[in-house]
Design goal:
The protein is an alpha/beta fold. The protein has two domains: 164 residues, Bordetella uptake gene, domain 1 (D-Maltodextrin-Binding Protein, domain 2, 3-Layer(aba) Sandwich), CATH 3.40.190.150; 116 residues, D-Maltodextrin-Binding Protein, domain 2 (3-Layer(aba) Sandwich). Strands 1, 2, 3, 4, 5, 6, 7, 8, 9 and 10 form a ten-stranded mixed sheet that branches. β1, α2 and β2 form a beta-alpha-beta unit.
């Protein structure tokens, strides 16, 4: 093949790709939610997705693929065509799963980052029947009763789990971890008194605390939060302890850059909408809306940090 034919072929491919990107989207977009309905991931998705669909001019259809800390949903995305019509909302477990599960995808190569969506401070909540009401009391109780206190999580390696691991390390106590497949089942068991406590996310637990169905022991942020200004931070008893969660959006690896850019801009516009932003902020989220490159760097750093904690805690891959 001579040079002119090569250049013609390259030009044709570029023109075809550009045409696809310019006409995108021309059909509904599937948004994979890798946890059951009722959890924080579902809450974030349902808050911004309708506005995103309105901006793009296409319906955003939710597809719930819960299990294995979100890795089942990630596997589904990795097998999808890189055309912008299948996306995945991820929780912080995404930066952890490849350290603890035998996943069927490459953490970096199988996905293209679109944007970091929101972040949220953590909060330590317990069933009202639990004896300790402060971090100091919890540490004393856990030391006197090794392994008796149970704490739940949205799955092995989730922020709930790793927050508990870090807490136990810093406090020098033993508590029993109980993993769930998502926030919905976790909340049901905590409300029912089948679980003692959760290192949870503020948006998912705030109304339960205000209703008296759960009690707040501490916020897990660096400073006290406006929603509960009189609630102490865990760091006031355990200096340096902090936990926050995050959510982001991914596309399959190899998605055209123009489509990634279109999606990032549309998501940023959706998150900036006054009603969407108000709903997220009122529920305890901080809107971020990063660039694709910024989210990619964030993911790599989150993965490195999680890997170090997992190794130090002796959490074994499954």
């Amino acid at each position: 093949m001579n040079l002119s034919r090569v250049l013609w072929a390259l030009g044709f491919c570029f023109a075809a790709t550009l045409a696809v990107a310019q006409s995108y989207p021309s059909k509904p977009i599937r948004l994979i939610v890798p946890f059951p309905p009722g959890g924080s991931t579902d809450l974030v998705a349902r808050t911004f997705a309708p506005k995103l669909g309105e901006i793009l001019g296409q319906q955003i259809a939710m597809d719930y693929r819960g299990g294995a800390g979100g890795s089942i949903g990630a596997t589904e995305l990795s097998r999808s065509a890189p055309d912008g019509y299948t996306l995945l909302i991820v929780w912080d477990t995404h930066a952890v799963n490849h350290h603890i599960y035998k996943v069927r995808y490459d953490f970096e190569k199988s996905f293209d980052p679109i944007t970091l969506l929101v972040q949220s401070p953590g909060i330590l909540v317990a069933h009202p029947s639990v004896t300790p009401s402060s971090v100091k009391e919890l540490i004393a109780y856990a030391k006197a009763n090794p392994g008796k206190v149970t704490y739940g999580s949205g799955g092995i390696g989730s922020s709930n789990h790793l927050s508990g691991v870090l807490f136990c390390e810093k406090a020098g106590v033993q508590m029993t971890h109980v993993p769930y497949k998502g926030g919905g089942p976790l909340i049901a068991d905590l409300l029912g008194g089948h679980l003692d406590m959760v290192f949870g996310t503020l948006p998912l637990f705030e109304h339960h605390v205000r209703s008296g169905k759960m009690k707040a022991i501490a916020t897990l942020s660096k400073t006290r939060i406006r929603q509960f200004p009189n609630l102490p931070t865990a760091a006031e008893t355990l200096p340096g302890f902090e936990s926050k969660t995050w959510f982001g959006l991914l596309a399959p690896g190899g998605t055209p850059t123009d489509i990634i850019t279109r999606l990032q801009q549309a998501v940023a516009k959706a998150l900036a909408d006054s009603k969407v932003k108000e709903q997220l902020v009122d529920r305890g989220f901080d809107v971020v809306a990063s660039t694709p490159d910024g989210f990619g760097a964030f993911l790599r750093e989150a993965s490195d940090s999680a890997g170090r904690l997992i190794r130090s805690a002796g959490i074994k891959p499954e």
